[in-house]
Amino acid sequence: MNPGIVFVCDHNGIVLQVHRDDFSIFGGDAGNEHLSRYVAVSSKEAATRFFLTLSTDGVSISRPIEFVKNGTSKPLFCTGMRLRDCFLIFGTTSCSNLGPLISDILYPDDNPIDFSLLCEADTSADGRRLPDYQVYEDLTRLNNELVNMSRELADAQVELEMETDELHKEVQMRKQAEEALLLANKKLNLLSGITRHDISNQLTVLRGFISILKKKQPDPVFNDYFQKIDSSAQRISAMIQFTKTYESIGVNVPSWQNISNLVDIAVKDVALGDIQLVNEIPASTEMFADQMIVKVFYNLMDNAVSYGGKITTIRFYIEQSGGDLQMVCEDDGVGIPADEKEKIFDRGFGKNTGLGLFLSREILAITGISIKETGEPGKGARFEMVVPKGMWR
Hints:
Helix content: 40-55%
Strand content: 15-25%
CATH topology of the largest domain: Heat Shock Protein 90
Shape: elongated
CATH class of the largest domain: Alpha Beta
CATH superfamily of the largest domain: Histidine kinase-like ATPase, C-terminal domain
Number of strands: 13
């Protein structure tokens, strides 16, 4: 006995034919009865959708429908196909049985079955006899399509497995390369840290001897030379400290950070004196940035204090431009000369080490944030930082 039911009904839901082994649901006298007689009330809607799909698409995915006989119910997973004048339906207790059922019914022993073996011929007076050759043509066409689809799927699966293997190998290679790079960076950082420490110690010794010589030198004319030597040693020390800071850029993964809080944290290390800080950035505003972003705000405020002249106020605020966020730091100092607005971001430009704004631009660039100076000379500096859409919230 087949692991399910096989029957044919017309487009109005009238059961026309039932496979001779499947009378367990329909009974021995089935024929010309409406399908609703056999479908449970709870499955009426599901059956309607099932046959609507068959009518429009020609085939249907497996859908559970509950059949009733003699007061007992039997849920079956049904699939089917639309033929020219009717629907051919297969139903099994498990989706995994559909394939064997269809194969066993339509192609026993790998040979297409004659339609007369599938359905008992209806010889009633109303002439509901199905055109066997049309049904067979439809089944053959559908079978060929299914075979071709099966082959294409098999080929696609093989290709996908090959691509997956290649992708896995590539991921493994990248992982190994990243681990090797990480190890190399650790070694370089250790080496540079040791070297930096040793050079700093030697500079401290050098400046100490310079101080002693300055006090004991017989001719005051050499004071200017000693001052220049000491100033040069200070710049070297500052540059070495910069390498330590620059080494840390991009080491940690960028994260969402509260902009207003960063400004309040950075200002604690700035000697403002009588200068007023106005932080108008909303407390809930965040941006996705490198974890050293706080140094950017520190550098902007420290530069304003150091080079702003008669400055009284430093102000931070934000403006939205399209989908981007424009973050502004401005002061009321002497401003930046027009021919220096871009040079100030170059490494080494400036009165001290010339590394602060260069470092700031590098930190911001990690997550695509740009910075430029747009203030009016003589009326104060204005630094605009543009945070791209998706990098702020």
